[in-house]
Specification:
about 425 residues; mainly alpha; DNA polymerase, domain 1; hpI Integrase, Chain A; 3 domains; 3-stranded antiparallel sheet; globular
């Protein structure tokens, strides 16, 4: 076995760290009792050092289940055991214990960072970042801030060594995830310097990730599948009328989920047959055509499906008190519900509401619609975002295919 930290010392250090982080007495008791079982298992086998292999063997022998074959959903007993073992590994690698993420309730920033994070949020809002972009940036930054807080590092005391140590905690994440998280750290560090929280701009000290850039191909539905999806919706009940109009807006106009949720009654201009709104993502005013099928679907919903409510939004929940959808609702369950009802076999990849936008863009491309026009319809700021759809126009690629033997035959000899 590889030489590692003495198991007795590691357990003692983890328990001391839990006390420093102000874990409750009950929680620390749970950790202590579990680690007593770990130490007894190690002594019976004359194991003195900790390793990941030892932790895996202990878990599988104790609970008679392999880590790679955990039952779903994972029982609470196994979740706690994995958490306790993971703390040993975290402390061995990083010298601290990472707090378990609590999903309930709003995020509580560490005291030392509360003021600077509030100032950073105001700066993001001043720059016009959308709510969704701000949320993504905030979630990625939380890991960095929480790590510094566990180390007792104030904003003004951040050093290059802290940045290097934090980067090491990201091992195991996808390279694109790591790159995105480090990008947000650089932005935050530049802000700290610009407003005087730190004397130096440490953004250049954040390690660079060497990875190849690639565009993930958009998920596209076959045209017949979109029709089957819409046909599976029961338009005879109020919820079906609402869901049909929502999906139609995404499939026929390529509207983003955020724009559909934010659609107001005032945005519907029946006299000109247009929908005028400010896009949530880029905050640009956009005009959509109020196509006949969309218009009749909206009329059917507003007259016969929408609950009586004073809400200015077109689409509301159908459970009292009939409020608008939550800010981060993505309608994924809505798509899944009707997809299963229609029995549509879909290829691999994500197939939520956003994929209906991709499907519309790809269909327009197949109809030889110019990229600038597609970009305008999709709400892209430039055609660069739209060019990824070139990769899914399979028919066009087939027309451009060349016979390699013909190319080699006709090519000029190499000199």
């Amino acid at each position: 076995m590889d030489n590692g930290p003495a198991l007795d010392d590691l357990v003692a250090n983890v328990l001391a760290e839990l006390l420093r982080l102000q874990y409750s007495a009950g929680s620390r008791t749970g950790y202590r009792r579990f680690y007593q079982r770990v130490l007894a298992y190690a002594r019976a086998r004359d194991i003195r050092e900790y390793s990941e292999a030892f932790a895996r063997q202990f878990f599988e022998d104790t609970f008679q289940v392999k880590m790679r074959e955990l039952p779903q959903p994972v029982p609470q007993k196994l979740c706690l055991a994995l958490r306790y073992l993971r703390c040993l590994g975290d402390y061995q690698l990083h010298g601290t214990v990472f707090r378990r993420q609590v999903k309930k309730g709003p995020y509580q920033a560490p005291d030392a960072y509360r003021a600077v994070l509030e100032a950073f949020a105001r700066e993001c809002d001043r720059r016009g970042y959308s709510a969704l972009a701000a949320r993504s940036r905030w979630n990625r930054l939380r890991a960095f801030v929480d790590y510094l807080a566990t180390q007792g590092v104030a904003p003004e005391a951040i050093s290059g060594q802290h940045l290097s140590n934090y980067t090491a905690t990201l091992m195991g994440y996808h390279p694109k995830t790591v790159a995105a998280m480090l990008t947000n750290v650089r932005t935050f560090l530049r802000f700290l310097c610009s407003v005087g929280y730190h004397r130096f701009d440490l953004s250049g000290a954040v390690p660079r990730l060497r990875s190849r850039y690639y565009e993930r191909l958009p998920s596209v539905w076959p045209a017949d599948s979109v029709r089957r999806l819409l046909g599976a919706i029961d338009r005879g009940n109020p919820t079906g009328k609402r869901d049909y109009a929502i999906i139609l807006l995404a499939a026929r106009l390529g509207m983003r989920v955020g724009d559909i949720k934010a659609l107001t009654l005032a945005a519907l201009h029946w006299e000109t047959k247009t929908i005028v709104l400010v896009q949530q993502k880029n905050r640009r005013s956009t005009t959509y055509p109020l196509l006949d099928d969309i218009g009749w679907a909206l009329i059917d919903y507003l007259q016969h499906g929408r609950p009586r409510t004073s809400s200015p939004y077109v689409f509301v929940r159908h459970n009292a008190p009939f409020e608008p959808f939550a800010q981060y609702a993505n309608f994924h369950q809505l798509i899944t519900k009707y997809n299963r009802r229609a029995g549509i076999p879909l290829p691999g990849g994500a197939h939520g509401m956003h994929s209906l936008r991709h499907t519309l863009a790809s269909a327009l491309l197949e109809q030889h619609t110019p990229l600038p026009v597609i970009a305008e319809i999709m709400g892209h700021l430039s055609t660069q975002s739209t060019q990824v759809y070139l990769h899914v126009d399979l028919e066009a690629l087939r027309r451009c295919a060349l016979d390699p033997e013909e190319v080699l035959t006709c090519a000029d000899p190499i000199t």
